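User: My collaborator and I are trying to settle a disagreement about how two of our proteins should look. Neither of us wants to argue from intuition anymore, so we agreed to look at predicted structures for both before our next call. Could you fold the first one, then the second, and keep them clearly separated?

Assistant: That sounds like a sensible way to settle it. I'll keep them separate. The first protein:
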Amino acid sequence: MNIYNHVVKVGNTVYIAGQVPRGLDGKAAHVGDPVAQIRIVWANLEIAVKAAGGTLADIVKTTTYVVGADTGAKIRPARLEILPAEGRPTSTTVVVAGLADPALLVEVEAIAVIGDN
């Protein structure tokens, strides 16, 4: 039973709930490896925005939650690889003590605007 939606579209704005690095089995993936985890998170974000009819380029705002300040520094290069140099979204990073599952090191929520030139 889902208690919330991962993606909600209102007009041309898409709200994507925090995505975490879980495998298809629902378990945390790449435990202890924040770089591998952020790659899964962004793959999940891409699936979510595509489901709403958009692409990663349509994401205009992200909030990234990282466990420990060192995690933020470790994932930054991967984020730069994943997103194009032009048109990167605004971004806020929040250092937290932990996420819903202790094996998770990163979570990203996003807002996209689709079809707005």
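The second protein, kept apart from the first:
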Amino acid sequence: MYFDSYATGKRIQHLRKVKGMTQEELAIKLNISDRHLRSLERGEYTPSVDLFVEIVEFFNTTLDHLIMGKSTSEQEELMKKKVSAKLQRMARSLEALAYEL
């Protein structure tokens, strides 16, 4: 399997559009020029590792999705749900504790 910069660029573009952002707005968030972002979205340029990480964090996605188009596995989704449920229980416990204080 090889890296497809065009497909990666289209995924970045899709994530940006889903979030309702212009290229200029996203470029500002990523601290790059809108010209640079346009090149990324057209697949003319490959992001640095640091920029990949910033994009993944900003869009709350994974490198697997961004680079290879893979969606999260069922196991990952199950793990996310379990962690979310535990966090909700902890939040309720903290609220109850705060109320007692």
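Some points you might bring to the call about the second protein. The chain has a mean pLDDT of 89. The two ends are 58 Å apart (CA to CA).
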